[in-house]
Design brief:
Blueprint lengths: L6 H14 L11 H40 L4 H10 L6 H10 L1 H18 L1
Length: about 120
């Protein structure tokens, strides 16, 4: 059986890892073993934080909706409850965008929610 020399593949793999760790501090971008460890950690952080970002953005939307609801004399929870009672199916992303960019549209939704809560009480 012929002998297989593997130096080229290993060298390419090392170069790829070192290229991905460009900009890391200290020996984490110079030495393969340290770079590989740092890269594994960085990849796991980026995977986790891509998922955390979705929650962060949702919390931002809720803060914006709550601030706009306060301008109309309501709390966030009463606004959301009023919209559910009124059978208005609009998500928080669109509500937050309306609160920021279309005050008149958000005011109409807030009035709808208030009217439904008053009718239900």
């Amino acid at each position: 059986m012929a002998r297989v020399k593997r130096g080229v593949a290993a060298h390419q793999r090392h170069k790829k890892v070192l290229a991905q760790t460009r900009g890391f501090r200290g020996s984490k971008h110079l030495l393969y073993r340290r770079a590989h460890e740092a890269l594994l950690k960085a990849m796991s952080y980026s995977y986790r934080h891509r998922r955390e970002l979705k929650g962060d953005v949702r919390r931002l939307w809720i803060v914006r909706i709550g601030a706009a609801a306060k301008e109309h004399g309501m709390t966030y929870s009463t606004l959301i409850h009023g919209l559910k009672v009124a059978d208005v199916s609009i998500d928080r992303k669109v509500l937050a965008d309306l609160a920021m960019n279309d005050a008149a549209g958000f005011a109409r939704l807030a009035e709808t929610a208030k009217a439904q809560l008053a009718a239900a009480a």
